[in-house]
Amino acid sequence: MFCVTICSAPYSQYCVADDYFDPSLIEGDLDLSPIDLSVFNKKEGQLPGTYFTGIYLNQNLILNRDLNFDFLNNDKKILAPLLTKKEYIEYGVAENATPEFIKLADYDIIKDISAVIPDAFYKYNFDKKKLELSVPQIYINRNNLAAISETLWDDGVDALYTNYYYSGSTTKYNNSVRSGSDNNSYLNLRSGINFGAWRFRNYSTYSHTNKIDTFKNISSYLERNIASIKSQLTIGDAYTDGTMFDSFSFRGVKVASDEAMIPSNQRGFAPTIQGVAQSNAEITIRQSGIIIKQIYVSPGPFVINDLYPTSSNGSLEVTIKEANGSSRTFIQPFASVPIMLRKGGFKYSFTIGKYQSNYRANSQEPNFIQATGIYGLPYNFTVYSGTILSKDYKSVLLGIAKNLGDLGSISFDSSFADSTFQNDSNKGHSFRFQYSKDILFTGTTFSLSSYRYSTQNYREFTDINDYSYSEWKFNQNKKDKFQFNINQNLSENWGYLHLVGYQERYWNRKDKLQNIEFGYNNNYNDISYSVNYSYTNDYSNNKSHLFSLSVSIPMSKLLPSSRINITSSINDKSKSNSSIGLSGTAFDDDALNYNIQTSYANKIDHHASGSAQLGYKASFGEYTFGYNYSDNTSQYNYSTNGSVVVHPYGITFGQSLGETSILVRAKDAKNVHISNYSGIYTDSFGNAIVPYATPYEKNSLFLNVSSFNDSTDIVDNVKSVVPTRGAIVLADFQTQIGRKLYVTLTSTKIPFGATATITNENHDSIGIINDGQAVYLSGAPAEGIIDVKWSDGQCKAPYNASHLTTDIALLSVECN
Question: Which CATH architecture does the domain made up of 31-145 adopt?
Answer without folding.
Answer: Roll (3.10)
